[in-house]
């Protein structure tokens, strides 16, 4: 019984990580995902450098979230930034801003402007190596 509880405690510790999220970002989720897929699983340094060379609007938002997740890891959990990697990035659709464009004969044509939610989770690099073996 004691051995089982210790292994469960170690599992909980391995799941502990810092996260940062942004809500109602005024971009399409598909356009944000193409940047997010590039940095998932990368180290903290790579995740900061690689979006700088991509020509997408979502790069700035994702790099700000990576910085925020790293700051949360250092201040809340005491992790070092050099040992962090991006364990998970989740980009979800959110609500639509609904607008109407005037059309012929007094009609209105609906325009849907998409928004999304981005969640970045960072964890220690040593945990990534243990999971891989």
Task: Provide keyphrases for this structure.
single chain; 133 residues; alpha+beta; Ribosomal Protein L22, Chain A; 3-stranded antiparallel beta sheet; 5 helices; 3 strands; 33% strand
In short:
This protein is of the alpha+beta class and 133 residues long.
Please give the structural blueprint.
Blueprint lengths: L1 H14 L2 E8 L3 H11 L4 H6 L8 H20 L6 E19 L5 E17 H8 L1
Antiparallel strand pairs: 1-3, 2-3
Overview of the structural elements:
This protein is of the alpha+beta class and 133 residues long. The chain has one domain: Ribosomal protein L22/L17 (Ribosomal Protein L22, Chain A, Alpha-Beta Complex). Helix content is 44%, strand content 33%. The protein contains five helices and three strands, in the order αβαααββα. A hairpin with a 5-residue loop joins strand 2 and strand 3. It is elongated, with a radius of gyration of 19 Å. 22% of the residues are buried.
Beta strands, count: 3
Using the coordinates shown, work out and report the CATH topology.
Ribosomal Protein L22, Chain A
* Secondary-structure element series: HEHHHEEH
User: In one word, what is the shape?
Assistant: elongated
Strand content: 25-35%
Largest sheet: 3 strands, antiparallel
Q: Which structural category fits the helices and strands?
A: alpha+beta
Q: Which architecture would the CATH scheme give at its second level?
A: Alpha-Beta Complex
The CATH class, by name, is Alpha Beta
Over the alpha carbons, how many angstroms does the gyration radius reach?
A: 19 Å
Gap between N and C termini: 26 Å
* Structural domain count: 1
Mean pLDDT: 84
Tell me the helix content: 40-55%
